[in-house]
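Handout, section B. The chain below has 155 residues.
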Amino acid sequence: MLKFHDLLDNAKCYEQLRELRWPEGICCPRCGSDNVTRQGRDETERDKQRYYCKACQRRFDDLSLSVFSGHHQPLKIWMHCLYLMSLNLSNRQIAQELDLNESDIYVMTQQLREAVVAKKPAVTLTGEVECDEVYVVAGHKGQPDAVKKRPARTA
């Protein structure tokens, strides 16, 4: 039986990640310097490129300091999870499609959602702003005495 995640190549996922993460060229995720050299491939994942930053003298790879770093699932599983989340599938459906535990999918989707929210820019309102249908609670169904403040306790 052919699984959904077998349709995508891990190498293509890394290529796409590099293009999205560093559109103007690779730079250090810690200091932002573009004075970077390639340092070969990762031993466990041949498609993952390693780098060395000459400015801060630190090593990093394609996934360093990203939501995908430090996890045992391959990048193509994360990409498929993102795609299935965009289709508004439940965690149970995603787990079945990717042939993973529901608890693993829960952790993955939670981290992906938190990362998206963290990158979301702050909303700023400008110009004229209107607000319709404001509902203000004035009391408990005609019992305004129920919401009055009680006197402070004395010791």
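Note. The chain has a mean pLDDT of 85. Compare this with the example in section A.
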